[in-house]
Design goal:
Oligomer: single chain
Bound molecules: adenosine-5'-triphosphate, iron/sulfur cluster, magnesium ion
Radius of gyration: 21 Å
Family: Belongs to the ABC transporter superfamily.
CATH topology of the largest domain: Rossmann fold
Number of strands: 12
InterPro entries: AAA+_ATPase (IPR003593), ABC_Ni/Peptide_Import (IPR050388), ABC_transporter-like_ATP-bd (IPR003439), ABC_transporter-like_CS (IPR017871), Oligopep_ABC_C (IPR013563), P-loop_NTPase (IPR027417)
Helix content: 25-40%
GO biological process, one term: peptide transport
Strand order of the largest sheet: 6-7-8-3-9-10-12-11
Shape: globular
Keywords: ATP-binding, Cell membrane, Membrane, Nucleotide-binding, Transport
Order of helices and strands: EEEHEEHEHHHHEHEHEEHHEE
Largest sheet: 8 strands, mixed
Organism: Roseicella frigidaeris
């Protein structure tokens, strides 16, 4: 059997700053198989983007991967040269960034950028490549794609630029896409259209997709599996429907409770009390302790990341649900 597209094992990425060591990613593990979608969620500063950058080998000083492994189709990416890694990024692994200008070249017309992308991967004529580029723009909801192809990135609005960056990533048909909140700024209809295109790509091309977001409703509609991050660690992981239906970790319970659509009308929106702890001075034991309604003395010890039910993992010694041995 071929290995899964991506295995992240005990990944740790730290930033060595003047103020101290920021443990941005601290023991993150997950697997994404061919054609599967993993939703990576968590509040601001929980380490989602740094996880994405680490997978692509794009962590800059003062940051550094200090532990763990990233296996792409079974191959440890840490063993690749910078050049081999660059080739992989241009070809088999793509990232859609929060900022589309990290993908787009400001001095090239959109058609040039898109046609080159197609020609790099498919043996087709220039005219056919142009056709595919035009279709790709249409699929992400860009009106008059033929005309827009001749524009430069600065002639697009921010939202349109983001759609072009997404269209380029989809055109690549890479084996793995890491999408870092690319649709947050877009309106709901366009977002839905883009999510549908991403899902289609996964189903048709076997692309494995990691979709980073803080929006649980996006994950609910798009992902097969979910990984919830808190303070640099994955605190819960499992099939998306099961996790949203019966979360184990108190933080996941809080996140779900704070989604407006899940709230009863007229009731104040529930919020998780307290603040995200600073990653510089994390308390010993469970990082969620100060905010957790279920905390007890044992939580002063670091909780293990344990499989509480088949395929259902949580980093908590006192999770929700009846199947828990006390
Ligand atoms: N260059 C850097 N130097 C120091 N600390 C950094 C650096 N980049 C990120 N961090 C820290 O790493 C932590 C995780 O950041 P990250 O960007 O991954 O969060 P995130 O979950 O993507 O948040 P958001 O939802 O706001 O995008 C944060 O505490 C951040 O301050
Ligand atoms: S380990 Fe303890 S403090 Fe942490 S989430 Fe579980 S119950 Fe709460
Ligand atoms: Mg981020």
């Amino acid at each position: 059997m071929s290995p899964p597209t991506l295995q992240v094992r005990n990944l740790r990425t730290h930033f060595f700053t003047r103020a101290g060591v920021v443990r941005a990613v601290d023991d993150v593990s997950f697997t994404v198989g061919r054609g599967r979608v993993l939703g990576l969620v968590g509040e601001s500063g929980s380490g989602k983007s740094v996880t994405g950058f680490s997978i692509l080998g794009l962590v800059d000083p003062p940051g550094r991967i200090v532990g763990g492994q990233v296996l792409f189709q079974g191959q440890d990416l840490a063993t690749l040269s910078e050049e081999a890694m660059r080739r992989l990024r241009g070809n088999r692994i793509a990232m859609i960034f929060q900022d589309p200008m990290m993908t787009l070249n400001p001095v090239l017309r959109i058609d040039t950028q898109m046609i080159e992308t197609v020609l790099a991967h498919a043996k087709v004529s220039r005219e056919e490549a142009r056709q595919r580029a035009r279709d790709a723009l249409g699929q992400v909801g860009i009106p008059s794609p033929e005309e827009r192809l001749r524009a430069y990135p600065h002639q697009f609005s921010g939202g349109m630029r983001q759609r072009v960056a997404i269209a380029i990533a989809l055109l690549h048909k890479p084996d793995l896409i890491v999408a870092d909140e690319p649709t947050t700024a877009l309106d709901v209809t366009i977002q839905g259209q883009i999510l549908a295109e991403a899902q289609k790509l996964c189903a048709e091309s076997g692309t494995a997709l990691i979709w980073i977001t803080h929006d649980l409703s996006v994950v609910a509609g798009l992902a097969d599996d979910i990984a919830v991050m808190y303070a640099g660690k994955v605190v819960e992981q499992g099939p998306v429907a099961e996790v949203l239906d019966a979360p184990l970790h108190p933080y996941t319970v809080g996140l779900i409770g704070s989604v407006p659509s899940r709230n009863r009308r007229g009731e104040p929106l529930r919020q998780i009390p307290g603040m995200t702890p600073s990653l510089l001075n994390l308390p010993a034991g469970c990082a969620f302790r100060a905010r957790c309604p279920r905390a007890e003395a044992r939580c002063a010890e670091p909780p293990p990341f344990a499989e509480y039910r088949p395929g259902r993992f949580a980093r908590c010694i006192h999770p929700h649900g009846e199947a828990i041995a006390a």
